[in-house]
Design brief:
It is built from 13 helices and 16 strands. A 7-stranded mixed sheet has the order 4-12-11-10-7-5-6, sandwiched between helices. The protein has a 4-stranded mixed sheet with strand order 1-2-3-15. A 3-stranded antiparallel sheet has the order 13-14-16. Helix 3 runs antiparallel to helix 9, helix 4 runs parallel beside helix 9 and helix 10 runs parallel beside helix 13. The model has no long low-confidence stretch (mean pLDDT 97).
Amino acid sequence: MVSADRLEGEYRASRPRSSSLHEEARRYFAAAGATHSVRVFQPFRPYVTHAEGARKWDVDGNEYVDYSMGHGALILGHSHPAVVTAVQQQASRGLHYGENHQMEVEWAKLIHRMMPVAERVEFCATGQEANLMAVRLARIYTGRRRILRFTHNYHGWADELAALGGAGCVADCVTEIPLNDSVSLERELATGDYALLLSEGGGARMAGRAPIALEFQRSLPGVAHNYGTLYCLDEVVTGFRDAPGGWQELAGVVPDLATVGKCAGGGLLVGAVVGRADLFAALDPGAPPHRSIHHAGTWNANPLSAAAGIAACSLYVDGGPQQQARTMARLLRDGANEVFRRKRVWGSFYGRSVVHLYLGRPERDSFDADFEAPCSDATTLMDQRYAAVVRRMNLHLLQRGVASLGGSMFVLSAAHTERDVAVTLDGLESSLEAMIVEGAIPADLTVA
């Protein structure tokens, strides 16, 4: 295998200013100089100066087709004119009023219009905060304490939302069961101990790296209700991205509660828990003290986020941006799968507007790539066995002007074009060719 130092050396040489900034960042940020776990990368991620549409540029002038899209928040692409104008105008009017304002009402109306389950909307700063609020509301409403979740589903890094067994986490009231396991689900709910059943829209990790089976998804509200448990659908990623009504619209499911974030703010920070009106009684100032929630968040419905959110949500209503993103995602997905076939490498792309990479032999020859994966086992799909291969491919792609999210996810937007996809497919093919020459593709990933 060709030494990794050569590729890394070429990467560093073309990004001297990013390299210098990274060395400085290591003095301040404990995660190897990164401010988010997915941005940790060897030798370093590019340091970006600006972005527009589906492109971004780093401090050294390198241009990238971007597939991180604000960690999924930018279904409209970078710096959409309507969002930019709204933010600029609002900034001149005030960044924080410390008061109620008209925009929060308009924003909530748009969310309710797209997601009818949103009889009530409670804004906060992030999707994780929304999930924490959903847990609190469910506990007060049901009088129970326990939370039931699915393995590999991501709901945030706070104690009771993080994966069980995480260092420093306290989650004594949380149970995790395998995704798509009806027997385990029924067994746990039958105990009558659970306040809330929580699942991630589309399945585990970023809209379904490990997809949830549609039949199983559709069963969740009814099964939960049979045992007096509330069901919350975490749509922090899929809300307004999968469709105007989110994953619940695509899947045809009505949860008691849903949480949204990312796309709801058009690129600015936001989270919200939405759902049936009666479930929010604890937020009524007239609620008795033992059933009352004091929700004081400095950034709740912040005017700047509200302005961006209104501008973005107004564009989501007709479903046009979502359809464009899915069209480009399908073009990328199908084209990438053809590249893998030509290069005789066991690899598959699948997903809707967030396209996931699976390395390994497929379990099945045909599947619906919008809602299914090459294999049905979540543990296999989440396996890190080929993490080093993904990292190397990621480095090759960055050197060819393609920036993915962690190397294994490609987040599409309405701003991506056929030209962007063509550049990406050329970069993928060139990367695989280089890795084959290097000997960086393991024998068990090579089609005989």
